[in-house]
Design brief:
The chain has 16 helices and 32 strands. It is an alpha+beta fold and 574 residues long. The radius of gyration is 29 Å and the shape is globular. The structure holds one RNA strand of 78 nucleotides.
Length: 574
RNA sequence: CGGAGAGUAGCGCAGCCUGGUCAGCGCGCAGCGUUCGGGACGCUGAGGUCGCCGGUUCGAAUCCGGCCUCUCCGACCA
């Protein structure tokens, strides 16, 4: 008897909305008894939620196995020394949970596992004959997020599948990268997710090529730019659009004008009667190479990710303290400009084409008008630094870009040799020369998938599980558990279903029918078999589909119900 | 880290301004009875150091100070 009786199960549902939750998936995961909060960003998975989590895990595992990745287990507790060798003890910074053992040795709770796996590779891989190799694990990750949010969506402890591949060549890496891409797509599809794959920034991971798998959802934290015509799709942080046309103004000589108290772009536009596209904003950044100035047009926004990527310095940060700015630039905050600055100047490409720009005067109460890039101030490099907007022309085909929101459920990277070089993971090639292994890494937020699935599959009554990851296939509310006949039949049905490989949850609780119906909707399993007097009188049971409420009647005997339910479930699966 | 808000029973909340039968309500929970196809009803009952520490006061959930935690917006982020 492997089916589950609700009365003997831990599945506490809530009628009221939890005050702490904001988005549907978070509310529903609490209300339907999947998770409970222990502390900010730390959750318990109750039995019902854990069933779903394990099913997601199984799908991911199957897809990884199918491309020849080898499952293994890496430690959560990782020595500081390893992280120092790649420089990420600092780069990851306060986002890592750090601790000290009794002897004073530093450790981190692994936020990811490149260091430990590359160190493993350095020991175990020595020849080109050992390659390529792909290893993966499914385990807890720890990140001290600045702001945990939305339940399991941004948690401090979460379940992740992480894979790492090792190669002798970039071609080999690309092959595995493509296999991963496809395997990821299949895994998300099987989980019932609607996915957009987008070009992605590489952040603290390093490397060049990267894609993110975004579950499309209004409540997603990430923004993606999609071309309506050519299929270009990218994370907004790196999305490229064609440079906009320059403002139509005449070239003119440089002139310093008095602008008392006028600091912001809006104030300048008002005070000088110019258009925002003529104004140039100046920001100060400091990184490993010292301070620099960054220019963007007044009607544009600086996309910091693009800047970081272009400069290649993860420690780069914006200076926004007025005193610090004045110390670096020698000019007051609000009146900064590139003219006469003694630090390197980078600029967005749209700045180059402004014939006569308004820039800060580097003196309290003054701005320059008629400034011409190249003539009046030097720019070291022009880059695409501008944050794309809805409707911008696609960088490839010129069609308007759309901005949508998504939940990042997976990301894959072509890392190259960043980690293998730092940690000495090399191999001897056919010609006897020693080379660093070329690496890729690949992550899936397993627990986040659950949130994303619910975000995409719910209605105002509750969750609507896709069959493949539903914690149970059917729920059987026994309307009158006190009536022996109904109870007996329900048990026989549940047992028969279980024997046929379908998971049944028998609601034998002493509750009113209304409550059982509501709970069945809330927990969202795909099918409900109603065992009640009305249909029984006709020798039938009623099957209701969660997705659309469609009802079918089946003869009230185990064989017919097993057949009928099997058919209905088959029709539901992808 | 900046801004805002909140911590009173398992959940959702009132009470606080104006200190003294204010330890309260709804849901949930336990017992008994009635009910039973779309969140039933009656009766009885259990359950709370009012986030923590300190102060003011004859007296503090309520006033003052400090701390902690949680949530939201922003910044940040595989």
């Amino acid at each position: 008897m492997a089916y589950v009786k609700w009365s003997r199960y831990l599945l506490p549902t809530w009628k009221e909305e939890p005050a702490e939750a904001e988005i549907p998936s978070h509310k529903l995961m609490l209300r339907a008894g999947l998770i409970r909060k222990v502390a900010s960003g730390i959750y318990e998975f109750l039995p019902f939620g854990y069933r779903a989590l394990r099913k997601v895990e199984r799908i991911v595992r199957e897809e990884m196995d199918s491309i020849g990745a080898l499952e293994m287990k890496l430690p959560v507790l990782q020595p500081e020394e390893l992280w120092r060798r790649t420089g990420r003890w600092e780069d990851f910074g306060p986002e890592m949970f750090k601790l000290t053992d009794r002897k004073g040795q530093g450790f981190a709770l692994g936020p990811t596992h490149e260091e430990i796996i590359t160190e493993l590779a350095s020991r175990e891989i020595s020849s080109w004959r050992d390659l390529p190799l792909t290893l993966y694990q499914i385990g807890e990750k720890y990140r001290d997020e600045i702001r945990p949010r939305f339940g399991v969506m941004r948690a401090r402890e979460f379940l992740m599948k992480d894979a790492y591949s090792f190669h002798t060549s970039w071609e080999s890496l690309e092959e595995t990268y493509n296999d991963m891409y496809k395997a990821y797509y299949r895994a998300f599809l099987r989980c019932g997710l609607k996915i957009k794959v987008v070009e992605a920034p590489t952040g603290v991971m390093g490397g060049n090529v990267s894609h993110e798998f975004m579950a499309v959802a209004e409540t997603g934290e990430d923004e993606i730019a999609l071309c309506s015509s050519c299929g270009y799709a990218a994370n907004r942080q790196i999305a490229h659009a064609r440079p906009p046309s320059p403002p139509r103004v005449e070239e003119r000589p440089l002139e310093l004008v008095e602008t008392p108290g006028v600091r912001t772009v809006e104030e300048l536009v008002e005070f000088l009667g110019v258009s925002p596209s003529q104004v140039v904003k100046t920001f100060i950044y400091v990184g490993r190479g010292g301070p620099m100035a960054v220019l963007v047009r007044g009607d544009h926004e600086l996309e910091e990710t693009k800047l970081l990527q272009a400069v290649g310095d993860p420690t780069l940060r914006r200076v926004d303290d007025p005193d610090e700015v004045e110390g670096i630039a020698g000019a007051p905050f609000g009146f900064l400009g590139p003219i006469g600055l003694r630090i390197p100047v980078l600029a967005d490409e749209a700045v180059r084409d402004i014939p006569a720009a308004v820039v800060g005067g580097n003196r309290e109460g003054y701005h320059y008008v008629g400034a011409k890039p190249g003539r009046d101030f030097a720019v070291e490099r022009y880059l695409d630094l501008r944050r794309v907007q809805e409707g911008d022309p696609c960088g490839h085909c010129g069609a308007p870009l759309r901005i949508r929101r998504g939940i990042e459920v997976g990301q894959i990277f072509q890392l190259g040799t960043k980690y293998s070089e730092a940690l000495g993971a090399t191999f001897l090639d056919r010609d006897g020369s020693e080379k660093p292994v070329i690496m890729g890494c690949y992550g899936i937020g397993v627990s986040r998938i659950l949130g994303a699935v619910i975000e995409q599959h719910h209605d105002d009554q509750g969750i609507i599980w896709p069959v493949e990851i539903a914690p149970f296939h059917v729920v059987i509310p026994v309307l009158r558990p006190d009536m022996g006949e109904q109870m007996e039949l329900s048990e026989r049905l549940a047992e028969a279903l279980d024997g046929a490989g379908m998971e049944a949850l028998l609601d034998d609780r002493d509750r009113s029918p209304g409550e059982k119906f509501h709970d069945a909707k809330l927990i969202g399993v795909p099918l409900m078999i109603v065992v009640g007097p009305r249909a029984l009188k006709r020798g039938e049971v009623e099957v209701e589909r969660r997705r659309d409420g469609a009802k079918t009647s089946l003869p009230a005997d185990p064989a017919s119900v097993v057949e009928g339910v099997r058919e209905l479930l088959r029709a539901e699966s992808i």
